[in-house]
Write a structure and sequence with these properties.
The structure is a single chain. This protein is mainly α. It has one domain. Helices cover about 70% and strands about 0% of the residues. The chain is rod-shaped.
Length: about 80
Amino acid sequence: MITSIQIRENVKNQLEKMKQFEKQTYEEVILALIKNAEIQKSRQEALLIEGCKVMAKDMLELNKELEGADSDLNWEWKPQK
């Protein structure tokens, strides 16, 4: 089923400029924009996951270093009076 949507003239002009070939329809332009948005979202999610993995690895290494430093020192907690 074909429907119509209302858009402002400036939006229509922007869609016109985005056409990659003369006979491309506005629907094809919009579908290409949606596809590009989905691809970018997937890439951002993958980068975020990778960044979290790197940070987690760094935090584990730092924790191991701090545990080693803590065992070298003879810490004794004394409550303040």
